[in-house]
Every structure is written in structure tokens, then in C-alpha cells.
Give the backbone structure.
Amino acid sequence: MTTINSSNNINIDGDQLWHSIHEMAQIGATEREGVCRLAFSAEDRAGRDRFIDDCQELGMEISRDTIGNIFARMEGEQPTLPAVMVGSHLDSQPTGGKYDGAYGVLSALEIARSLYAAGRRPTRSLEIVSFANEEGARFAPPMMGSGVFTGKLDLEKMLDTTDFEERTIRGELSQDTTGDFMTRPQRAIDSFFEIHIEQGPILEAAEIPIGIVTGAYAQRWYEVTLTGMESHAGPTPMSYRKDALVAGAELILAVEQTALAHGPDGRGTVGTLSLSPFSRNVIPGSVTLTIDTRHSDNPQLDAMDAMLRQAAAEIAQCRSVSIQVDELWHSPMRPFDPELIHSLEQAAQARGFNTLHLASGAGHDAVYMATSGVPTAMLFVPTKDGISHNESESITREDAIAGCQVLCDAVVARLFAEL
Ligand code: HGY
Ligand code: MN
Ligand code: MN
């Protein structure tokens, strides 16, 4: 059990952290003060290159892997020991906020900076990481970089994944002009820590600055194709129609009903929809849409899957359209590591912060790290009005610094732990 030995403590530079977060927010900045750094875009590459520059400035060893994850390593006194890894992601939603992901990567960087500034070389090595394409907004599924890194997602299949303009990740990466950094050697990882904004209302409502994350909700993503019959909006009587869009509208309401029918932890969202032939006076013959379902409990998510498929079958029959429901991705609920959770709890208490334990409705790279068997834990800090995946996303400077300091204390305890 790694205990927080406050004599080991390293104090972070809160001003430097807050400044680096807002420097990063300039990369891909939007007019409404958010960010747009879609995975593998020029803005995403610029954010990643800034991270690389800052790590190189410290003298860290940079490496990457074939899906574009970036690793920076501070070698410890005993370099053959498995490293402590800390990180998150720099890619964003199209109308993302300044803090989702970037706060976690730049907190990891601040821990490295603080160790170098204190002249402290840890026993274990420290690896900080920026995982590629966590959001899955442009290229689904999400958490792709960590999924490939942990072997849970197939690299070749991911490289051939296309965005809505039919561009592939392979093609995007081929334009990559990052330096010729070495591929990260196969090296064991002792533990993984991630700090993130909560992206929900719980911590702010409880007026508690530190959230200890117990695990992340299970998720299932679907791609749905509805096929009816396009025909003339005038001469076609209502009873003759095979309207794919009206069937889609019923399915969207069924998604909402399915989530509501599975308690407060049920979530159902239709975030994209396209139709054809997209003409004012033609009955839509074809609709494609995506569904994101989540639940804190694996069996409940399975029950939602069954209910959704049942609803689709009934709508298809009633409206004489075909509805193809394809599961795109499934991420089961994964609890995080009790020992690391305890070390985060200790670190927060040692600094006098109240904590609250909560599950994450959002997915994070920590989920795949935990799934791969690496002891993993996450910290949350409050999000203003619980709003995220929105340009108005906001956190306080005070909470950002408190969270990073608590993370630093737990990470340092692990880095210097007696063997
Ligand atoms: O969708 C999520 O949970 C995360 O933001 N990728
Ligand atoms: Mn995120
Ligand atoms: Mn996100």
C-alpha cells in the first residue's frame, strides 16, 4: 500500500499549470471561446506538437506509437522498474471546451515540471501520455488511442476507419510531420493515473473539490440504417408512405424511453442523423443515425440493448421500413483500482480537501488502461453547471490547482514508493 509521505511532497506551480492550460486552449480556439481539435486534424497535431515541445524542453524522452499516441518519459533511478503513467487526451469535440482532456495532459506535464524543478529523480520512471482520438467525434469508436495501445482495439481496423468525409486515419496519419520519434518500446506499466473535469453537476452541487472516480459507465454505440421508399410528397397518400424519417423519429423517442426506463443511471443519445434524398418535396427513403447508450451497471445496459432492438423491430413492422441496428462499440463498466483509489483519498485528506466517490458517466482512456490489467485510478474536479462538450465548459483556477496537487502527491508517492 503506497502511503502519502508528505515529506516527499512536491508542490506544483499553480500559475504555470493554469497558464499552460490556456496556452493550449489557443490551439484550435473557436470564436465562442471553446476549442475544436478534432482527432488527427491540423489543430490536433498542433496541440500534440506543443505538448512534445514542452516535454522536450524538460529533457524528457519522446516516443510515439502507430495510432499517434505520444509518450514523454522521465527516467527513474531504477529504469527497469515498471513506470508510473499519467495522462489523458488533447483531441476535442467540434464544439469542445478548454479543459476536457487537456487538463489531464497538462496536469501530468506539471507533475513532470515540478519534479525537474525540485531536482528530484524518482525511483520509478514517470511516463506522461497524450492518447490519440479519445473523443471519437470524427473517427469512432472513442478512446481509440488507449484502445489500440492496450490491444483492445485492432490497429489495422482503426487505421482504415473513415470520418464523415470518407477520409481514413491511415491517410490522415500519413500527412503527419511529427518528428521521427522512436516507437515506444514495449515496457511494463506499474500504474495509470488520469485527472479530468467531472463533466457533470455532482461535485459542484455537493461543493466538494475532489472527486475520486470509482469506475466509468458501460457504453454501447450503434449505427442504424432505416430504409423506406422515397416518393413524391404530393400525390403519395399518407397511408401509402414508407417514410424513413418518421420511423427514425419514433426510434429516437424510443432511445429516450429506453434510457428513462432504466433508472437515473440510464443514458440514451442520438447525436448524428443524415437522410436522403434531402429534398423538400420528397419523402425520405433512407436515414442513418447513431445511438450512444450508457449505464453504470452492465446487466442494465444489456437490458437497454434488448429493449432498443425490440422497439426498432416494432417500428419497422408498423411503418413498413427496414431498420438495421449495428453495434459499433461496447465498453463494459470497469471499477478502478482500490489501492490507488485509497492513495488518492489519502492525498486529498493530507491536503485538507473533502472528497466524494462517484462513477463517471463519461468514458476515459483510464477505462482501457484498467481493462488491460494496469492498476488505474482517476480524479475529478468540479465543472461549472455540469456543462461539458460545450464551448462554455468552465472550471475554477482553484479547483484545477487543487486537483493537480492531489494527483501529484499520489503519483509522487507511487514514484518514490519503497520497493
Ligand atoms: O463520450 C465520452 O464519454 C468521452 O467524452 N469520449
Ligand atoms: Mn475527455
Ligand atoms: Mn470528451
Observations:
- The longest strand covers residues 218-227.
- The CA atoms of residues 270 and 291 lie 5 Å apart.
- The two ends are 11 Å apart (CA to CA).
- The chain has a mean pLDDT of 96.
